[in-house]
Design goal:
Chain A: This is STAS domain-containing protein. The structure holds 2 protein chains of 2 kinds. Chain A is of the alpha/beta class. Chain A has 4 helices and 5 strands, in the order ββαβαβαβα. In chain A, helix 1 packs parallel to helix 2. Chain B is α+β, with helices and mostly antiparallel strands. Chain B contains 4 helices and 5 strands, in the order E-H-H-E-E-H-H-E-E. In chain B, strand 2 (about 65-75) and strand 3 form a beta hairpin. The interface of A and B includes residues 55, 56, 89 and 90 of A.
Chain lengths: ~120, ~140
Amino acid sequence: MSDRVPVMKIGDVLLVSIQTDLEDQTVLDLQEDLSERIVAAGARGVIIDISAVEIVDSFVGRMLATIASISRILGATTIVCGMRPAVAITLVELGLSLNGVRTALNLEQGLALLRASRPEPGVRP
Amino acid sequence: MNDHGADSAPTETVTVVRNADVVAARQLVRTLAQQAGLSLVHQTKLVTAASELGRNMLLYGHGGVIRVRVTAKDSRTGVWVEFRDEGPGIENVELALTDGWTSGGGMGLGLSGARRLVDEFDLQTGPQGTTVSVIKWNR
């Protein structure tokens, strides 16, 4: 039995703030919960805040990349924000490039990036 | 490099049979890394390596035992971590240490990535099981 990570909705953005040391099952649950919420909420953006996460190993890295791919297919842009410097250094040395995952320094910049990546209303992309 | 027993601090042990045990082992490794005075980046590298190797034990070795202790050599202090399982062993070590190669569903960065994250890395494998021991030094 693992705790589920809460998914919050602000407008058409889903916000996930990961606050615990991630167990594999928690990660898999989050993937499922998020995909369902994207569809149910008609979300256009997903922000995953990992500022409280102390390590990102290859499993968690793969999860972030998978979530980004799933949400892209469902029509939402995913931004991972708040990565700690030590985590970033370790990820690079581990060999994980997080291809396809957009990142931002913090939540504020993440939201700004989402707004900027969205086409103006009435304008065809 | 494996035997730092005589002059070292007490060894802590975690038995790994499920994923939650890997999480517990990560926390133990972090605590000892802090005790050994490793920098935050070095702590993070060691804990990440422990996470990869602990997961490997579960995936390929049916679980096992993780032993951790603070160790010293010359004027350096570090943390020694050993991952021992009694699984079927790794058939082709060279291949298993290749980036991107995986026999399971992973990204193929577990062993090769973990090796890059530590200062010393030793792998013994055979039909009786696999033992990986690593050291991260404080400097």
